[in-house]
Amino acid sequence: MGDEPTLAGQPRQGVRADAQRSIDALLTAAAEVFAEDGVDAPVRQITAKAGVGAGTLYRHFPQRSDLIAAVFRHEVDACAAAAPTLAARYDPLEALTRWLQRFAGFIATKRGLSAALHSGDTTYDSLPGYFQQHFEPALSALLDSAAKAGAIRSDADPWDLLRAIGNLAVPAADDDSGHTQRMIALLVDGLRFGAGA
Amino acid sequence: MGDEPTLAGQPRQGVRADAQRSIDALLTAAAEVFAEDGVDAPVRQITAKAGVGAGTLYRHFPQRSDLIAAVFRHEVDACAAAAPTLAARYDPLEALTRWLQRFAGFIATKRGLSAALHSGDTTYDSLPGYFQQHFEPALSALLDSAAKAGAIRSDADPWDLLRAIGNLAVPAADDDSGHTQRMIALLVDGLRFGAGA
DNA sequence: TTGCTATCCGGAACGTTGTTCCGTATCGTG
DNA sequence: CACGATACGGAACAACGTTCCGGATAGCAA
Question: Is residue B3 part of a domain?
Answer without folding.
Answer: no
